[in-house]
Structures
1.
Amino acid sequence: MISRLRASFSSIALTERGPTRLTTLFFSSLFAEHPDFRVLFPPALDKLGPRVFQALKFVIDNLDDEERVMGFLAQLGRDHRKYGVDERHYSAAAGSLLEAVQGSFTQAIWTPSLTTAWTEFIDLMLDTMATAAAEDDLPATWGATVVDHERRLDDLAIVRLETDSPIPYGAGQYLSVQVPQRPRMWRYLSAAIPSNPAGQIEFHVRRVSGGWVSPAMVNETQVGDRWLLGSPLGGLQVDRDSGRDVLMIGSGTGIAPLRAQVMEMAMRAHNPRVHLFVGGKYPCDLYDIETLWQISLSNPWLTVVPVSEEDENPWWHTAPVPEPPPGLHRRLLGKPGRVVAEFGSWADRQIQVSGSPSMIKTTVYALQRGGTPLNLIRHDPLI
Ligand SMILES: Cc1cc2nc3c(=O)[nH]c(=O)nc-3n(C[C@H](O)[C@H](O)[C@H](O)COP(=O)(O)OP(=O)(O)OC[C@H]3O[C@@H](n4cnc5c(N)ncnc54)[C@H](O)[C@@H]3O)c2cc1C
């Protein structure tokens, strides 16, 4: 069944318009049958479609890893409670998704066995989401108040909030976030500090040029704003039972989930060795390197290696480039993936990669080319 699903899905994914066609058909079928569902979604669906497609792709790509797929779907189900989604929505979505897949399939004849395979797969997927949502006794959303908004770079802000009650997320996880300036436009952000009883949480937000939400988060956030946060998601974590040391590679705000994990590890007596490569285009993009240096100075298991593509800051960034404290690694030059792969194979490590989708793809590719097996590499879904 897995190979049948994969083959039919790639015939859609590899066609230029296949992904857009699939999600457009899905939403149009859903809203035609149930016009009242439209209000649950943001006014513009152009950004949601690719996310739905990527989530489906993530599930299909990882079908051999049942634990990972089930965990992902359960988290997605818990997260969907923020939209007010219930049992009725899931059964409606099943029919629309099947119709969309069938309608986007262009390669060969759609057979009854494909209908069976896709029906079973969609039912399993949506049942897992619905059951996880029904069984979760945590709130669907948490309110949080912005207590600090620090513009660390022109296009990057560190936002600190206090949640109304503590959110039990794991260090390395991300959450759905809705800001008052962009209602109903949820975006994922990774927590940059571990969960704590005071309900403090910190996000590092990079302004994406032309984006709907991140410019508002960076430019318009005010102390006192009320944000809404969804259920914790994601599975980046250090496997303490594997006996393997850790390689972490983060770029830009992608360091946030790695930072939260090393902060959490710093509270423990024993840890595996961690090599943390921190990348960015310019030296100034390593905007939090000094915090990481401080952690590594008092935690000998942590090695921090700064990496930037350019040696100098752009002319408009006038602050001096920080120098590492004595004894710590000096900055290396290049893209993080290439620099890390130059050290050879990292086959004896457990590996986490975090950054923009293109950084993750190029880094994973560079590691693989350098002899590191793919099954050792973890990253968040590219959604
Ligand atoms: C698991 C996960 C964790 C994330 N954690 C963080 C985080 O901690 N901090 C943070 O700043 N962002 C994070 N993001 C990205 C964030 O969720 C938004 O996608 C990003 O802020 C852009 O939103 P937007 O509404 O401004 O852009 P949109 O209006 O959604 O998109 C505008 C355009 O920008 C492109 N785009 C979207 N994201 C990026 C990106 N990261 N780099 C380059 N181009 C992009 C889109 O493809 C689109 O073409 C995370 C994303 C995921 C999936």
Note: The chain has three domains: 2-135, 142-233, 245-378.
2.
Amino acid sequence: MKRPFEHVALIGTGVLGTQIAMLSAYAGYKVSIYDIKEGAFDETYDKLFADLKAKVANPFIPWDDWAKCKSRITFTTKIADALKDADLVVEAITENVEIKRKVFKLMNENAPARAIFATNSSSLPVSRMEESSGRPERCINTHFYLPLQGMNMADLMAGTKTLPDVMQKGEQWLRSLGVVPLRVKKEMLGFCFNSVWRAVKKQTLSMWANDVADFQDIDRAWRIFTGMKAGPFGLMDAVGLDTVHNIEMVYYNDSKDPKDKPPDALEEKINKGELGVKSGKGFYTYPNPEFLQPDFLDPKK
Ligand SMILES: NC(=O)c1ccc[n+]([C@@H]2O[C@H](COP(=O)([O-])OP(=O)(O)OC[C@H]3O[C@@H](n4cnc5c(N)ncnc54)[C@H](O)[C@@H]3O)[C@@H](O)[C@H]2O)c1
């Protein structure tokens, strides 16, 4: 697939930014990255590598190509250096609209006028950040789903002023990465598949927090029913429990409906540093979580 441009810059190289940077490098783009935390990319890369090695037989990027892709990514501690030649800037920082607005302003100050701005936010429409960007006609949502684990799809959604050509370039970029674009035709909180996934998270977290069922049994049911390798709790660990919590808070702050508030028990886990794969413990313990043990689905166990 033809590349619509050459240089992709990433802001924020946690769980998702690292994966998008790796995918872009694998597809042949020049990639530069910036994170306020020095070493964030290396740290996430090592954790992802160990986690996926334990779980995935045929990863999206073949194991032999990981180091090569990593070596093609330029890390800088100065945002200006990361953005100065960018055709596309992807924001993948913490899920907080105020911080994202500040970062969109910085992106505008440091990127060329031609650059498209994409947010990987899991819940915020880009229309909530576009005014800070100084270029609302060049802003899009591109929301990825853990692509290196083989979830090669991404929501693609316009802001209120996005030009058709910008949407088209976003779509071409996703396709060139080997990612299926899920085109959202009307602005919606939660986009396309994330709205479905949100309903699953809300229900399963509530069942766990109210002690209706053990999280392992919910994951067993999901795995047997769908044939997937992980259930909702294994998936939430991979996403990061702090990120899950931040996303639920976006919906809650929007609706103010107490039913949308994430359970206190989730916050308690986060306060103990149990963030999922990235901290070595969430619902499960990593890198060898219980749900990957051979007897997890054994009826005789
Ligand atoms: N984790 C997932 O599965 C997932 C999936 C799809 C989308 N998302 C979205 O992607 C975004 C990032 O999520 P994540 O899970 O990768 O988070 P994360 O916590 O793993 O990483 C966030 C990174 O952003 C950096 N950061 C924070 N503020 C910054 C700033 N002002 N400038 C530069 N860097 C900054 C942090 O140091 C960290 O490395 C969020 O908007 C989230 O909703 C996450």
Note: The mean pLDDT is 95.
